From TrEMBL, chain B:
InterPro entries the record matches: Cyt_c_assembly, Cyt_c_biogenesis_CcmC, Cyt_c_biogenesis_CcsA/CcmC
Keyword Transmembrane helix: yes
Keywords associated with the record: Cell inner membrane, Cell membrane, Cytochrome c-type biogenesis, Membrane, Transmembrane, Transmembrane helix, Transport
Record membrane topology: Multi-pass membrane protein
Originating gene: ccsA
Superkingdom in the source lineage: Bacteria
GO terms (BP aspect): cytochrome complex assembly
Protein name according to UniProt: Heme exporter protein C
Length: 42, 241
């Protein structure tokens, strides 16, 4: 059995999951901090 | 606990968290990429497992974060229950989603490794089953937290659950000792490792990289929660006039 498709699948899956949680966390942080800052300025 | 008391102030915490977030996140990404490069191209294949051993460089750090994440969640829950630091409750909540994700990644990458190595995607053995239980415990914590927030709870019930769930950690750790499992025994301990140094070095970079990445994500989530709390408090004040 060729092991490389299994190795590639594990790495690609981890990269996608890591990128997804990083992007979602960063996006919600930016949106929430911007809203808090705008409200503070009002 | 002077340092914990000092950090309990959200303003002081944010002063540290703002510069620490990109530092942790980007140094984590850099170390993870370096470890992946080393693990995929600079290490020899294992004499038994062959090339599939390269999955170890993501599977082991993912397992470490699943377990370490719950240990952090339980510690933060304990600090919240004893000292009533609201930031501790926030930290526990911020750990839950990345902790669950890395536990899931540990299960999936282990399953992918198991197919060419053991000839099966899944086996109901002690280590795999206890790790799956940890994933379900993470999901239960997330559901409990949401339910508690919706009914206006003070977070004590999720915190108690966070501490109670830590009973799984020694079970997972010793599962390969207590039961005859398909999963291999402990390869890395405090006194040494059974893995050859030529294959071991990228694992240290991967462990450090994944941990820093995880810390960066947790800091982002804590900052989000603090900002949302600020907005809600200000809206309440405005509504009162």
């Amino acid at each position: 059995m060729n092991p490389w498709p299994f190795v590639a699948a594990a790495y690609v899956l981890t990269a996608i999951a890591g990128a997804a949680i990083a992007f979602a966390s960063w996006r919600s942080m930016v949106v929430a901090e911007r809203a808090a800052e705008e409200l503070r300025r009002r | 606990m002077p340092s914990i008391h000092a950090l309990a102030n959200p303003t002081r915490f944010l002063k540290i968290a703002r510069p620490a977030t990109p530092v942790c996140f980007w140094s984590g990404v850099a170390l993870m990429l370096f470890a992946a490069w080393g693990g995929l191209t600079r290490t020899p294949p294992d004499y038994l497992q062959g090339e599939t051993v390269r999955i170890m460089y993501i599977h082991v750090p993912a397992a470490w974060l699943g377990l370490g994440g719950w240990a952090g969640l339980a510690t933060a829950s304990f600090v919240y229950l004893v000292w009533r630091h609201p930031l501790a409750a926030l930290a526990a909540r911020a750990i839950a989603v990345p902790g669950a994700l890395f536990t899931a990644l540990c299960l999936v990458t282990g399953s992918i490794w198991g197919r060419p190595t053991w000839g099966t995607w899944w086996q109901w053995d002690g280590r795999l089953t206890s790790m799956l239980l940890l994933f379900f415990v993470y999901l239960a914590y997330l559901a409990l937290n949401r339910a508690d927030a919706e009914r206006g709870g003070d977070g004590r019930i999720p915190a108690l659950f966070g501490i109670a769930g830590s009973v799984l950690l020694p079970i997972i750790h010793y599962s390969v000792v207590w039961w005859n499992t398909l999963h291999q025994g402990q390869s890395i301990g405090l006194t040494g490792s059974t893995i050859d140094a030529s294959m071991l070095w990228p694992l240290w970079y991967a462990m450090a990289g994944f941990t820093l990445f995880f810390t960066g994500i947790v800091l982002m989530r804590m900052r989000t929660m603090l900002a949302v709390q600020k907005v809600e408090a200000r809206m309440r004040r405005m509504a009162r006039g």
